[in-house]
Write a structure and sequence with these properties.
CATH superfamily: Ribokinase
Number of strands: 14
Shape: globular
Helix content: 25-40%
Strand content: 15-25%
Order of helices and strands: EEEHEHEEEHEHEHEHHEEEHHHE
Distance between the termini: 32 Å
């Protein structure tokens, strides 16, 4: 079983020819509302791959909240642990996506900001040895820290996506993480220098590993991913695709990684699997609806380049 402990948002998405400049009013081409939130996105990514998945989080007792729960159920994610909050509204994300697939995102947490003791206890009641736990940073950090402690106590694997990019992560959190998966922006924030290519990502990954995580993956978009494990490192090149929407690429990657690891894959094939899931997702519009099925991943897997040792 994979548990995603984190955020659920309704994404309010506007398609534009290009991203607006500060102070500029730009005419959009299309507007849609789609289920999102990094926690929910990652849960759906795993469930679409056929792995049993449970979402733990909080939404408002409003139209958006009920819609998000229905969407999780439709995707095969167990949602009985999602709290309906009567005081706070459901979180929303305001997203602008240009015709090249690049995006700008503003998140208003709403009920996500109240995730805490109730959700942690729910996780404690459910998590078992050998399970996987997906974490992100769109809910309070103290709740994330408590969730990692639960996972450590239960013998579960912790995969932390440090997004939105933090200024720093507490040492007692870092040492409880099995897989830390920042993108290049988040990695730059954590190490204090620009991560722009494979060489700088490798340097950053080694620094981050020294702070506690067992393994570090730095996601480089079209440049692939750089991985540092306790015994070795490698660069996994990306699959060349035509990207139309990169909004949930990182969430797709983490979902694919979790699915691979729970299936018992070693780092190289697990990261190759994750890379393929992300590659498919960026060729589709939307967040959760862009997540591929196992058969769709299998059809692309043979096209993914072989990992290169570092």
């Amino acid at each position: 079983m994979i548990y995603s402990f984190g955020s659920l948002n309704m994404d309010l998405v506007c398609q534009t020819p290009r991203l607006p400049r500060p102070g500029e009013t730009l005419l959009g081409q299309q507007f849609t509302t789609v289920p999102g939130g990094k926690g929910a996105n990652q849960a759906v990514a795993v469930a679409r791959l056929g792995v049993p998945t449970t979402m733990i989080g909080r939404v408002g007792n409003d139209g958006f909240g009920h819609s998000l729960i229905n969407s999780l159920n439709a995707a095969g994610v167990a949602a009985e642990a999602v709290v309906l909050d009567t005081q706070a509204p459901t979180g929303v994300a305001l997203i602008v996506v240009d015709n090249g697939g690049q995006n700008q995102i503003v998140v208003v947490p709403g009920a996500n900001g109240l995730v805490g003791d109730r959700e942690v206890q729910s996780l404690r009641d459910r998590l078992r040895t050998g399970d996987g736990l997906l974490l992100q940073l769109e809910v309070p950090l103290v709740a994330v820290q408590q969730a990692t402690q639960v996972a450590q106590d239960k013998g579960a694997t912790v995969i932390l996506d440090p997004a939105p990019a933090p200024a720093a992560l507490p040492d007692d959190l870092m040492v409880q993480v099995d897989w830390l998966t920042p993108n290049q922006t988040e990695a730059s924030q954590l190490v204090g220098f620009a991560v722009t290519d494979v060489a700088s990502a490798w340097a950053a990954a080694q620094i981050l590993r020294q702070r506690g995580p067992r393994c570090v993956i730095i996601k480089l978009g079209e440049q692939g991913a750089v991985v540092a494990t306790p015994t070795h490192g490698f660069h996994q090149p990306a699959l060349a695709v035509h990207a139309v929407d990169t909004v949930a690429a990182g969430d797709a990657f983490n979902g694919g990684l979790a699915a691979g690891l729970i299936d018992g894959l070693s780092p190289e094939p697990a990261v190759q699997w994750a890379t393929t899931v992300a590659a498919y997702a960026v060729t589709q519009r939307g967040a959760q609806r862009s997540m591929p099925t196992r058969s769709q991943v299998d059809a692309l897997l043979a096209q993914v380049p072989v990992a290169r040792p570092l």
